[in-house]
Design brief:
4 helices; 30% strand; Aldehyde Oxidoreductase, domain 3; single chain; alpha+beta
Length: 146
């Protein structure tokens, strides 16, 4: 498992090479990019990495995750710059897809990053991000009721 909060860009090819275990049948990945407006991301290093590690551990408790990489950048970023990578390896695609989506949804709401868009100021949390994360809580509650 790799978790990195870093200023420098990541190389997708290099990051994918670590998933070489022959038992891995699927790697689902998400790469997020900065849209349209330059931004600055700030964070508290120890707090942010701990939060991301907790999100990944939650995913590992829900799905059969064999390995995982989460890289989130900070600092000044320009439009089209890669900002986040979530890659989840599993024996089967269903677990890989679900865990990858879960991690990304929770990163948007639970990882302590602060975003400031150039010329616009600090970005507020979006209701759509909260709703995306909440669906996973609803899924757990519905499974317990079944």
């Amino acid at each position: 498992m790799k978790i990195s909060v870093q200023r420098e860009p990541f190389d997708l090819g290099s990051e994918m090479r670590v998933f070489s275990d022959p038992r891995i049948g699927a790697v689902a990945l998400f790469v997020g990019q900065v849209r349209e407006v330059a931004m600055t991301l700030e964070h508290y290093p120890a707090m942010t990495e701990k939060a991301i590690r907790g999100i990944v551990e939650e995913a590992r408790g829900r799905w059969q995750v064999m390995d995982c990489t989460v890289i989130h950048r900070f600092g000044e970023l320009q439009p089209a710059d890669p900002i986040v990578l979530v890659a989840v390896a599993s024996a089967h695609r269903g677990d890989a897809f679900a865990a990858c989506e879960f991690i990304m949804d929770y990163l948007k709401t639970q990882a302590p990053f602060w975003k400031k868009e150039a010329g616009k100021g600090w970005v507020e949390a979006k209701a759509s991000d909260d709703a995306a994360a909440e669906k996973w809580n609803d899924l757990v509650l519905n499974k317990k009721r079944s």
